[in-house]
């Protein structure tokens, strides 16, 4: 499968993606725990069906020491016992923030309050920006059919 566009070939995409990549770096450096960031990025990508992002975030999380059991259970996190309450709150917020059309009301007050019990304002900010960022990146990759499978952990660091 070939991508419809090579984002690194043209000046417009290269310039825009430079800013996207710097936003991703700012998120990595945020106080939101790295494991939570990868779990959320993976779950958003699963919901959106972004294979290249699923590939990337699975490999990055594994390289950072995440267990195969937890990675395999992200799609069924509600029934899994391997996630902390804080991670579950982040995954729930990520799902409602991703499924805005399905949920009609966006993120509910209950889901927001649950996340706010576990994360301070800076962490919540990072979580909201991460969910939004991943939804945007997923769409960039899905629209242009970016192929998955060849990502190597640390490739964009």
TrEMBL record:
<protein>
    <submittedName>
        <fullName>Alkyl hydroperoxide reductase AhpD</fullName>
        <ecNumber>1.11.1.15</ecNumber>
    </submittedName>
</protein>
<keyword id="KW-0560">Oxidoreductase</keyword>
<dbReference type="InterPro" id="IPR029032">
    <property type="entry name" value="AhpD-like"/>
</dbReference>
<dbReference type="InterPro" id="IPR003779">
    <property type="entry name" value="CMD-like"/>
</dbReference>
<feature type="domain" description="Carboxymuconolactone decarboxylase-like">
    <location>
        <begin position="16"/>
        <end position="96"/>
    </location>
</feature>
<keyword id="KW-0575">Peroxidase</keyword>
<dbReference type="GO" id="GO:0051920">
    <property type="term" value="F:peroxiredoxin activity"/>
</dbReference>
<dbReference type="Pfam" id="PF02627">
    <property type="entry name" value="CMD"/>
</dbReference>
<dbReference type="InterPro" id="IPR004675">
    <property type="entry name" value="AhpD_core"/>
</dbReference>
